UniProtKB/TrEMBL annotation:
Family: Belongs to the heat shock protein 90 family.
PANTHER family the record matches: HEAT SHOCK PROTEIN 90 FAMILY MEMBER (PTHR11528)
Keyword set includes Transit peptide: no
Organism field: Hydrobacter penzbergensis
Binding site for ATP: 31, 35, 76, 81, 96-97, 163, 319
Record has Nuclease as a keyword: no
Molecular function per GO: ATP binding; ATP hydrolysis activity; ATP-dependent protein folding chaperone; unfolded protein binding
Any Pfam family the entry gives: HATPase_c_3
Protein name: Chaperone protein HtpG
InterPro entries reported in the protein's UniProt record: HATPase_C_sf, Heat_shock_protein_90_CS, HSP90_C, Hsp90_fam, Hsp90_N, Ribosomal_Su5_D2-typ_SF
UniProt entry keywords in alphabetical sequence: ATP-binding, Chaperone, Cytoplasm, Nucleotide-binding, Stress response
Length: 612
């Protein structure tokens, strides 16, 4: 029998482990199960090269909870350890068995990289015991430690090859004696480990066939050529049981200059508010690490779902936070390229299908174009804009279609857009009569996208279809004479100079077509954009604009026949009511008539209809 002290540089290692080694105490189970998987994988490797003789038997891991005895055991049938190895790997904390093994057998698929992994057991235990027997000749070994630097180590009759670790759970960690809690941790962290894992409670009668809690053969470790559409969809349901079938997916499979496997899915998104980030899971050799992958995956692709697995991503001792590393940047760039290539391929080969999915895809593409210049360059080929009649145009196609009518005096291409085709229908119809092409920009990201693209696309400008009277949408028409005399124009302007709560109203009289509305309300592009952006959470100057009243221009169409009658009205009260009703109709088309003003408009119309 051997007694001694664990050889570490400080006697306080256990309090340090308990408090600071891992931010999440539940990680202890992931570490211990990962070590058990390592031990099993090592045995496979040694057997395949003839260094381990005899039958492998069933390589499985059992996690057994005994709430009555307050213990949790992790049992494997892997390589096991000799007394010397226990002393070397367990007592010499700074020495990592996995690291030495990897150096010796470079092609082995080893999970653990950290000599401290085993010691995470002391975060939740008063005492930890190890029963182990090496695949080599020799007797079983017992090791025990109560969380002080002192340990016991001696030979015992333990006849099972492999290792059994018994944790005596401390009072503070009683939650880990609940079956549901343990099962939940295993399902979260060990769901795709390559060795079957079984969970049971001591004394529990086993009925029917045992079911492992993990899928040892997830699709991302297979080659794309081995998989069918149904395999990808089935795996998506495994990851997100309540998710709708994804639009499509990208299978990542890289072994140089870094190792990266995984499957990224484009989810179906019908409304902007359904966007969910942090749905990509990061694994390291099939061990779950985190679902916070913002350092690895480009920001705009955080909207994707799926799995990434890379042994080359550096992780700290808890495997919970990523550290800065050149590999991470390379992986990030590779994922961007793969996504852009896949989107371009679908657009080129299945354009109709691509357009049908645009409602969901557009969010990814626009977000990516705003945040990633390399993606912007590629995406300009497959960004599409849908017009109000349901036809799609790439930027180049839109420019070609509007070359003659929608270039202003400075040679800038004007993209006319609507944010609400129903509400802005009158403006859209007026633009279509001029031969203009109006596209829909009605998602949450469009306000920011428009501003961004104006800075990045040369000689291109966006104008909302209701930003001005139709004659001024492309180029400002300064002179537009009316059939009215100067005096009548001034009289109309005075009549329509209105004070309206929360609105800054400017009035002008112009000679528009007799078919145009008697009054057209427009909101200047710049101020409206600032307020729109403030509405979706813009800070800084946009927040300042949010506090300002809405700017609106009332363009009175002096050529409309209604004014021939209105100007001759001798009853000033009726005349004023008619003026206000015409102005309110125009404001209503812009959604600017609210509250008391809207109530007054309804009451006034009822009075007019009654002849009052």
């Amino acid at each position: 029998m051997q007694k001694g002290q664990i050889r570490v540089q400080t006697e306080n290692i256990f309090p340090i482990i308990k408090k600071f080694l891992y931010s999440d105490h539940e990680i202890f189970l992931r570490e211990l199960v990962s070590n058990a998987v390592d031990a099993s994988q090592k045995l496979k490797t040694l057997s395949s090269i003839g260094e381990a003789k005899g039958e492998l038997g069933e390589l499985r891991i059992d996690v057994v909870l005994d709430a009555k005895e307050k213990t949790l055991s992790i049992i494997d049938h892997g390589v096991g350890m000799t007394g010397e190895e226990v002393d070397k790997y367990i007592n010499q904390v700074a020495f990592s068995g996995a690291e030495e093994f990897v150096n010796k057998y470079k092609d082995a698929n080893i999970i653990g990289h950290f000599g401290l992994g085993f010691y995470s057991a002391f975060m939740v235990s008063d005492k930890v015991e190890i029963y182990t027997k090496s695949f080599k000749e020799g007797s079983g070994v017992f090791w025990s430690c109560d969380g002080s630097p002192e340990f016991e180590l001696y030979n015992v009759d333990y006849n099972e090859r492999g290792t059994k670790i018994v944790l005596h759970i401390n009072e503070e960690s009683a939650e880990f004696l609940e079956a549901g809690r343990i099962k939940g941790i295993l399902e979260r962290f060990c769901k795709f480990l390559p060795i079957p894992i079984y969970f049971s409670e001591a004394g529990e009668k086993k009925e029917g066939e045992e079911k492992s809690i993990n899928n040892t053969d997830p699709i991302w470790i297979k080659k794309p050529s081995e998989l069918a559409k149904e395999d990808y969809e089935k795996f998506y349901r495994e990851l997100y049981p309540f998710g709708e079938t994804p639009l499509f997916w990208i299978h990542l499979n890289v072994d140089y200059p870094f190792n990266l496997t995984g499957v990224l899915y484009f989810p179906k998104i019908k409304q902007s508010y359904e966007i969910q980030k942090d749905k990509i899971q990061l694994y390291c050799n099939q061990v779950f690490v985190t679902d916070e992958v913002k350092d690895i995956v480009p920001e705009f692709l955080m909207l994707l779902h799926g799995v990434i697995d890379s042994p080359d991503i550096p992780l700290n001792v808890s495997r919970s936070y990523l550290q800065g590393d050149p590999n991470v940047k390379k992986i990030n760039a590779h994922i961007t390229k793969k996504v852009a290539d896949k989107l371009e391929e679908i657009f080129r080969n299945e354009r109709t299908s691509f357009e049908e999915k645009w409602e969901s895809l557009g969010l990814f593409v626009k977000y990516g174009m705003m945040t990633d210049d390399k993606f912007l360059e590629k995406a300009s080929k497959f960004l599409v804009m849908e017009d109000v009649d349901g036809k799609f145009y790439t930027l180049d196609e839109y420019k070609t279609a509007t070359e003659t009518l929608q270039k202003n005096k400075e040679g800038k291409q004007i993209i006319l857009y609507t944010t609400n085709p129903v509400q802005q229908d009158a403006y859209i119809q007026a633009a279509k009569e001029k031969g203009y092409l109006v596209v829909k920009m009605e998602t949450l990201v469009d306000a920011a996208f428009i501003n961004n693209m104006e800075m990045k696309w040369e000689n291109t400008s966006f104008t909302r279809v209701d930003a001005d009277i139709v004659d001024n949408l492309i180029d400002k028409q300064e002179s537009s004479n009316t059939v009215l005399s100067k005096e009548e124009e001034e009289q109309l302007k005075t009549l329509f100079t209105l004070q309206i709560a929360d609105l800054n109203v400017t009035t002008e009289v112009k000679g528009l077509s007799t078919n145009s509305a008697p009054v057209v309300a427009t909101r200047p592009e710049f101020m409206r954009r600032m307020k729109d952006m403030a509405g979706v959470g813009g800070g800084g100057m946009t927040a300042f604009y949010a506090q300002m009243p809405d700017e609106v221009t009332l363009t009175v169409n002096g050529n409309h026949p209604i004014y021939q009658k209105l100007l001759k009205e001798t009853n000033a009260d009726i005349q004023q009511k008619q003026v206000r009703t015409l102005a309110d109709l125009a404001l209503l088309s812009q959604g600017l008539l609210k509250g008391n003003d809207l109530t007054s408009f309804i009451n006034r119309n009822v009075e007019l209809m009654q002849g009052n």
